[in-house]
Amino acid sequence: MFATVLWSASLLFAAPASLSAAETVWLSELDLTMFRQSWGEAQRDRSVTGKTLSIAGQAYERGVGTHARSVVWLDLVGGSERFLAVVGVDDATTSDSASLAFQIAGDGRKLWDSGVLRRGQPAKTVDLEVRGVRSLMLLVTDAGDGVSYDHANWAQARFLVSGARPRTVPAPVEDVVILTPKPGPAPRINSPRVTGCRPGNPFLFRIPAQGERPMTFTANPLPAGLTLDADTGILRGTAPARGEYVVNLSARNRHGTAQSTLRIVAGDTLALTPTMGWNHWYTHYDRITDRLMREAADVMVSSGMADVGYQYVSIDDCWMNAAKHADPLRVGPHRDAEGNLLPNKHFPDMNALTEHIHRLGLKAGTYISPGPRTCAGFAGSWQHEARDARQFADWGFDLLKYDWCSYGEIAAKDPDPELVKFKKPYVLMGRLLQEQPRDIVLNLCQYGMGDVWKWGAEVGGHSWRTAGDLGFELDRIFEVALQNAEHRDWQRPGAWNDPDYIQIGYIGNAHGMGQPRPCPLTPSEQYSFMSLWCLMASPLFFSGDMGRLDEFTVNVLCNPELIEVNQDPLGQCGRVVPLADETFAMVKDLADGSKAVGLFNRGEFPATVTATWPALGFEGRYRTRDLWRQQDVGFRQESLAAPVARRGGAVFRLWRAE
Ligand code: GLA
User: Fold this and answer.
1) CB atoms within 10 A of CB 154
2) What confidence score (pLDDT) does residue 196 get?
3) Considering the domain 276-566, what is its CATH architecture?
């Protein structure tokens, strides 16, 4: 179906007569590892899938095959005169939904925009003067409909060069700016201000409070069965009879006293605010040990994370035995003669581990699959579910992540309708956990199958992943967030959409379970990540290296005013308000009648993001506070605007003023 004649070098556009360019430098001759793209790798003179470059039936000999979203930066070193190319969707893409937009920017200004191009549409020609431009950026966006099937060709892309040759370079490095003010020495009691528990089960709550230690806590009136450690602010005991108890809290040190309340709701619902904590997966993968778990718990306290509400210290996969693994200490029988799960040799004593975590006032999380094996090939719960649920309770775990993984093998043989099969393992584990004499929060990990947000709560889940592993698509945090927010109506206290863990600081590349290294996101992207997760009331699980927490990472993770938005008792997921091209707002109603508003810029250029009152559905005058900076910024009426860095975000809280 494609033209057999390749558009080859001999068919180059003739250079304008006035141009003295001596040399043609092909984009595909340059270092293509500098391309950042959402899928696959940039290909030299081939499409992203390795075929002949082809647009609307026309084949091309040279060019770069890439995939939206794709960005590459070039330093033209002052030597390039023109940039020429023909661009479009590659014919090999298999879906009619493929659509793209190509954009070119020079020194921070947009120079060219293809508009939306779809599969089969003729290529667009670029012939751009770039004399005097130093920094050039070639961008392919998904044209607003997601990146699936978006195979993009910069065909015949070349520079006419009269001096130095252009080169591809890493994206410009952004300044690392710390926005969260350092906590002061005076006490400050932070969220959550409500906690759920089941009557008669063990109760544990560490009052999150910043400020200089020593500090003395009070909690009055305390329901019968609970005691407070006045030095640590840890409440323990047995959860009271069904009912709501409002406890007045105070925290005092030599700089002052802070007061707050904690509402304890003894009933059927746990996780009344989104779960917060740390999970080992994106840092330690199949290298996790008891020592690393204890270290994480210690750092959660020493870093101040526990003082802003982080609470769960969760093991992910690979704590059990596998039949095969490079580390012999992880190989062994899955179970003992009675069928009890056997942790591997890196976990000599599970009770001692959870005790270590509980002593700090924190909670312990664990992980398994309903299938015969976990995703990484370790022991699963299949046909041992009741025993395992009991075991997790006996070991002292407070949260279970139940990961579908090899359950697909079981489901494939099950004649029941699809939705019944999706629910089945979770219905079973949900019931078993409720039968334990312990509060165990259940996180469903099955990547959104069967619209899990519609039934996750009904089967006993407290949160559910709405998509696949975010570690594989970190450059798509905006898209993943926007998709997650589409399920906002299903979310409520005790029932949370989970777009996966916060991956900032030191994390290992999910492709290949790499060793931790600085995460590839820019500082602005990291602020956006945390801002979006807070506005969506998503579970906040940091999954970076606790042993290498730097000041910037703590600043992103530990802003109590942002976290208060996440932990707001209404539990609302922000609603998305599209603004200009690549900007949007996210608006979240808060329990005190105020609103949190995020202004985001998904684009590659700094932008002033403006949201007008009609767009936001606001009326009148609002007292406004910049939450990252923790600064009042006066009153706003008619609109809210902020300068926002490329791929950045700003978050404000607005109170109606009369
Ligand atoms: C799946 C899950 C991840 C992680 C791994 C462990 O990929 O989605 O979050 O738990 O399994 O193998």
Assistant:
1) 29
2) 98
3) Alpha-Beta Barrel (3.20)
